[in-house]
Amino acid sequence: MNTERTTEETRQESVSFVEEQVRKDLAEGKNGGRLQTRFPPEPNGYLHIGHAKAIAIDFGLAKKYGGECNLRLDDTNPQKEDGEYVEAIKRDIEWLGFKWAHLYHASDYFQQLWDLAVELIKQGRAYVDEQTSEEIAAQKGTPTQPGVNSPYRDRPVEENLRLFEEMNSGRVERGKMVLRAKIDMASPNMHFRDPIMYRVLNMPHDRTGSKWNAYPMYDYTHGQSDYFEGVTHSWCTLEFVSHRPLYDLFVDWLKETKGELPLDDNRPRQTEFNKLNLTHTLMSKRNLLILTQEGVVSGWDDPRMPTICGLRRRGYSPESILNFIDKIGYTTFDALNEMALLESSVRDDLNKRAQRMSAVLNPVKLVLTNLPADTLEVYTVQNNPENEADGTHDIKFTRELWIERDDFQEVAEKKFMRLAPGKEVRLKNSYIIRCPENPEECVVKDADGNIVEIHAEIVPETKTGQANCNMKIKGKTIHWLSCQHCVPAEVRNYDRLWLVENPRDEIKKYSDEHDNVRGIEAMRPFLNPNSLEINTKAFVEEWATTRKPLDYLQFQRIGYYNVDPDSTPAHLVFNRTVGLKDNWTKKQ
């Protein structure tokens, strides 16, 4: 493994404290000079952008330094886990551009974990407790007050062994017994106050069937699984800082039973970094599940969701997400990152990759009165001016066009620079046009007074590309579509799901102030009622029918969109990814 880097490379490259630790450990030859990481999600929901931060470092640093990263599914709780989530996790990791070296499950180690627990009981380091969960919580004390010993703490080893076997028999009522580690009920670290290692669930497991009725807890399982797999660096978020001594202790106990002490250079090392927190976002699988179950969103992949599959469906690229994560970095303190920063990363990336096309979302007809009715001109336009390799396509120009209703004002405001009576604008890739001075000659209205047609004339010598087309005007360039050569489309304009900057704190506060109201009822006051607007009156270029689901697009002058998986050539559906500019901040 080549880890040498020049002084100049090191000076120019800014690396996180996590990466600095990797470099140091490799340089010192710890773990035999190996780097092995793991990404260990619980398959009880879909991954969200917070998981993407863990994925980026687990897989990214392993790849950068010639190591391996495993995917380990933490399937220790069959109550909440589902094969659907397993497949979604795999799909999301691969979409982000990573591939695991090996696929493991925590359930692979159920027998080894059980055998270790039996050995710890024999050593007097674990016991079966028959207190209720409420009694256990009460006797643990508080951070400033020591706990008291369980009345079952000094049970004989033989009795503990018998009861532990009974816990897995299927005859013990759920919650009736737990296995606890015997550590220190007076420890200032609450996690050392005889933590629970096993609980009774009495339910089958997808992978192990009915073999187990008692299942191991996360704190007991995690470090041992890392050890069994040869993990060298175990990265997690800051809430696990206080768990780290217990992680290390359980690994020490495991290795001691194997006679493999000392551990100084050959052990998995847990290091914690800050979570990815975003404004106007709620990120917990429990709360995201509530939103799906209550019909607030259409599912886990709703484009308003912070799930990786939701961001994918909305039109985010993997690169935009990873670039954002790289910008915010990894630290040892939590921060609330602005959604605007993520959206800026998306714009920067999509500007380079999105194919350009014209769409008119709120159409009004424009008739060019000095053109013959059978006018047909064909223009060849670039698919992406940022990348010539993306090629070109043709658009058709005719006498009758659709333009955006907002691009015309019958009585123009002082600074209005688009089309109005007596004003001129350029039609993109085409002519300069001029409206008559007299409003009555300029517009046609229906019986209710709504404008249904705008009349204007082209200035023939101003066609784009002609040698003498440099006529100067004050008006802006507007986009258009031929009425005869466009297709209808459904456009789904997504906005932020939450009105408040920090929905988690606001929901908790509301719950506390309203008799502990929970779930969706605590969320409703903070949900954005305008987070989705569906437009069925839009038109797009005929070329749009050739685009595939999830293709990245820019609707010129409007924003970035993508093709929704629901879309078909007969019924086009587009999702707004992000606007061309940050309009949310202005609205706020």
Features:
588 residues; alpha/beta; 17 helices
Written overview of the protein:
This protein is of the alpha/beta class and 588 residues long. Helix content is 29%, strand content 22%. The chain is built from 17 helices and 28 strands. Strands 14, 17, 18, 19, 20, 21, 22 and 23 form an 8-stranded mixed β-sheet that branches. It has a 7-stranded mixed β-sheet with strand order 12-26-27-28-24-25-13, with helices on one face. The chain has a 4-stranded antiparallel β-sheet with strand order 4-5-6-7. Strand 8 (233-237), helix 9 (244-257) and strand 9 form a beta-alpha-beta unit.
Summarize the model shown.
This protein is of the alpha/beta class and 588 residues long. The protein contains 17 helices and 28 strands.
Give the strand tally.
28
Helix/strand class: alpha/beta
Question: What is the helix content?
Answer: 25-40%
Q: Calculate the terminal CA-CA distance, rounded to whole Å.
A: 51 Å
| Beta fraction | 15-25%
User: How many DSSP helices?
Assistant: 17
Overall shape: elongated
Which spans have pLDDT < 50 for at least 5 consecutive residues?
Answer: 1-12
> What profile does the largest beta sheet have?
8 strands, mixed
Mean pLDDT: 93
Report Rg: 31 Å
